[in-house]
Protein 1
Amino acid sequence: MDSLIQQLRDVGFTELESKLLILLSEQGSMTGYEAAKKLGISRSNVYAALQRLVDQNFVLHAVGEPSHYAAIDPALLTKTIAERMQASLRYVEEHMPSHKQELSFFYSIEGDKVVAEKIGQVIAAAETEIIVDMTSRDGMLVQQALQQAENRGVKVLWSISSNEEQLPASGFLAFHEGQVDKHLAGRRFTMIMDRKIACIGMRSAAEEAKLLYTEHPVMTEYVLSRFIQDIILFELEQQLTEDQRQQFGPYFSRLWEPYLNKEM
């Protein structure tokens, strides 16, 4: 019941209007007095709410002594709500003032739910291409949204590991056999949408998710170049012979560790 009331409130009904719609749908036609008694709310408030619902054609009013009220069919109710919301959204889109956004801003977002919602928004808004670099654990969280993007014709490029290890180009903080710097412990991820929007974030069990969102072209190009480097290094590694693997190590550690030694 509470979840249904909340959903009705989310589409514009007051709490009392939501309760009345549910009550009338469950019980059928009844008087305002009966509805007030069922809900334990004053008759004046109930009659006022019923009149608003009648005015909006969500409730039918049979005038008489006493008058009776009945909810319209649920299918018609949802269709009417959807049509009115679509009309409102079209009006907002056509008439909302806008100005050219500053691309130099970097927006910091924190919190698991807020970060997830923002990622969902940018994926849903992508038109041509999405590039994703994250662990498989985090990839599961966006898999459905990315699948929907592919279904509408967006090209999706994945770079997802099956464990917490990464190639040095994408995990350059991985010192000493995969140990990360304790100040930045967590699962890092990056996303690029339409070569215009860059999202860089981190998730961990110890603290809330964090996300840096920007449309700055320099940052977008930087994230894209790192993704390309990852692909090149991955392809090179796949072509190494066993002797070369022994010489360079599984992630070319002998090449990059001297430059990334924490003690330097």
Protein 2
Amino acid sequence: MNNFENADNRYAKDWNAYSKTWDDEFGSSYYYLGEEWNDDGTAERQRDKYYFTIYAERFITSDMTVLEVGPGGGKWTVRIAPKVKKLIVLDVSEEMLQRTKLRCESLGIENVEYILANGNDFHAINNESINFFFSYDVFLHIALEDTFPYAQEMYRILTPGSMGVCHYAINSVPEAWDRIAQNNNWYRGGKHTLGQFYYFSPEALRRMFEHCGLLIKEQHQEDCYCTCIFQKPTKEKQYPSQLKHNLTELEGSPSQLQKTQEELERSHSWIQELEQGKDWLESQYHIWKEKTQEIQTELERSHSWIEELQQGKDWLESQYNNWKQKAQETQTELERSQLQLQQTQKELERSQSFITAMESSKFWKLRTAWFRFKQFLFKLKD
């Protein structure tokens, strides 16, 4: 690893500090630094896979030397390195380079060179030695006075005809101003610089690249971000007559046709991968749609069952209330009958006492003797 000292560079201070606190802040949720950015919640990290396909994979070949600026924890490094001859990673943060190196070594990736940058230029990279330039989620944190010199460096290190991809923040959309308003006080006055955004417009980025001799081929805008895909021209600007002559020669050049054919094949491969991604997304959509329908059907069945249970509950409650009322009425009637029985029992006891008292009285004895005497007289007459 390059041992250049850049301790006074504020970008180095910020990102070295971020690396040192990362484990405490994110280590419980992520294994590698950088995975906390652009997390779409899928185990396969489909969004990262998509970005890699459209911003890197379609441009790189196995014979290329590639420069990646700002590897962070090596998220893109481990994707690019296996597909190229050599990958150079350059960062102002020694902590970030160390994390990237450890991640690559853990995967057995050995074709990566690690360079500690000075924060001003790509001093360690030779002129026209890079076949593809890549930097994602980095230059949105770099100020204009540093961004422009880096664009000049991109022109210097790229071979003629080579492509590059660089990711920036833009202020030409409402989402950007929402973010600016939300974070303005935090960054104002230089109190904080870690993670600060520096905004451009897509047109300003195009003019900057053209001023540095680079041609914008594509600009992909998403939310408040713009990814610029650019190219270093193969030759200096020519007069129309010369250009027409060279185009005629180019059309008849077998080598150029072969190169074009290879580009077409890579494009077809890229389209196929996009189609596969589309098919996967569609299959996931249909699966979730079917599951949603099944859940909806199950919910409807559950609601119907709950309604039946509610009706049964209402019927049982009505029956319970009827039987409860009847039981109360029966209990009342039983109590009334018991009271009457008690009263009758008392009357019977009083009558019995009265009869007993009469039978034991003199009057009753005389009455009994009189009836016996009458029976005797009737027998005498007979």
Protein 3
Amino acid sequence: MREIIYADNAATSWPKPPEVVEAVGEFLRNCSGSPGRAAHKMALEASRIVFETREELAALISAPSSEQIVFTKCATEALNLALFGLLRPGDRVVATTMEHNAVARPLYYLERHRGIAVTYVRCREDGSLDLDRLRQTLIEVSPRLLVVNHASNVTGTIVPLAEVAEMKGPALLLVDAAQSAGALEIDVSQGLDLVALTGHKSLLGPTGTGALYIAPGLEELIEPLGLGGTGSRSESLEQPSFLPDRFESGTPNTVGLAGLKAGLNFIKKTGLARIREHEKGLTALFLEGLASIPGITVYGPGDPERQTSVVSLNIAGKDPAWVALELDRRYGIAVRPGLQCAPLAHQTIGTYPRGTVRFSWGYFSGPSDVEMTLVALKELARE
């Protein structure tokens, strides 16, 4: 297999730390027990892995207790749990026009089939949230729920969560942190009520892992998406009401959580600040190089301080799908073209329906990857 320049970390991070690969293999080789379902050594070891992963994730986001962390298979499932579990007919929701379809599609469905009302706050053309416009909308609509995307998967634009939380009033705040968990600091004590996370992007774990943080007391307001065996209160036909069991029916993806735990440990050992500085440096290098290539339009803030390592662009006269195909075919550069499952965001930044070519660097990307990518883009732009 030829060497790959991987610039698609916003889809899923690669490569994974060696510790993650080893943890998955170790679990499958020696510890494939079912957590919470027996008292033999393999089952107990599996339970320990689930518990310790929950503890590490809670610590990363400053959750008051690991019981507030509900494991899901991805951020999309976590968002669906929050939206379908919480919202009732007549509820009002405020969201932004930079939301991923993991938020927009459930809201669209709930608006039509459950009678909720959705108001979208239009973001600026660089993807940034107009806080004055948000404040006015919250006053006018008085929603039960406010949903924001912490970091855009299209432009990387970062929303200032602390400022948003200060103005939310009585509304509950749901944060889509699919792109930010593991890349940016998240502190739920700032007034975040619900936070949806995925394990396979910047948390460096395997696919099939995710979580929903639920602030203390809110679990009583949220209906489970599914019911079944939890390994607890097995004598009763009633679903357990306590966290996390209320929302975790069925055997969990323990092998995936073993890998996620290793990813979380890697982040803790490396330091989130160090990871952020590395990715900011790569983003700055990329943006500086792009500015010197004629025919390239960059979307988003264009400022590493105000965005993650996600950068979207287009080459004049070139279809994004063609650019992505040629980057892969000629240069071995992996990127994501199109709408990136976020049509509202592309309508906001003016790239709908064609989309963009999205680059997303990670901790294991290096300056040479960026420099070789700039050479490739320069050659394609000349054609």
Protein 4
Amino acid sequence: MGFMTVHLTILHIIIGLGDGGAENVLYRLCNADLPCRHVVISLTDEGKYGPLLEECGVKVLTLHLSLKKPNPLVIYRLVKMIRSISPDVVQTWMYHANLLGGIASYFAGVGKIFWNIHHSSLGVGHLKRTTIMVSKICAKLSCVIPSSVIFCARSALNEHVKAGYDKNKCIIIHNGYSLTKFSIDTCSAMNLRNELYLDKDDIIIGFVGRYHPVKGHLYLIEALEIVKNRGVSFKCILVGNKINWKNQKLAKSLEEKSFKDDVFLLDKRLDIPAIMNTIDLHVLPSTTEAFPNVLCEAMACGTPCVSTDVGDAAFIIGKTGWIVPSKNSGALAESIILALLEKKKNPYKWNIRKIQSRQRVKELFDMDFMISKYYKCWTK
């Protein structure tokens, strides 16, 4: 990427290292070819990414903090740890770490402190009340502690500026994606179809996302019922945490609509590029998002998308797919039907759409762009 030889110690402070978008970006930055030494402090545990970071040679420290019973001494512990590490830059991730890590870094004398925010909506129902309270405190401190507040989405930045964050400190760095990892791969698609006993001619709709009310699975199921009642034949693959037949609420919704033979619940999977190559259309039914990674991951694999109008989804998709209002199963169904009809009746146009989907990610959301912007931010 042509960086100057500047050796920096970057300390990342994050609430946890589970399976999430911010955690994934942190991992990619630590694994990038940069002249930096990375150290990570997790306020809770090592989660999914702790061992992966250590495999890359990144030192990971954990505090095992209980968010339900916060200990004021954690600030004191953090200050001591930060001083012993002596970082050039502290990059915090998500509200609790922005607050605790920001205050501790400030008192430890760190000159460059950067906050990172991946949430777009601050409303009750989308976040816990305690998290909303922490965000409000951060808004008051945003003019004092951070050098910059980094958002992954324009919609998230706008929402937080309205909530009182210092607009002069707020910047956007979109998430970036490996176009080598997420690429068009017909071989992996065929292998997964064989694994699931799906025919090569089966039309497959997919959605990758954990089970949570804001992810809109029930809206998707209602939309799929409409599609099915219109006589459109399809199979559906759902992937994510708690996406299995042991999830009684999800299983009941599918069984009530006679979808047990048509919908595959694959739970958490590591082969997301293969999933995105296997499906013909990715549908995002969420009621709130900031910058939905799964849209870029699908598009990078040449898979067109239908999405609700949440966060930066419309900006991500552009003219390569379909955008519908959130919480509207009927509109979601109509766009799914339009997409599948185009695939069936106009394969030439569909193939152009697939090419354009990947090209848009390449032009706007390449991982090297993201890494370069973070590095420039840390070194300016």
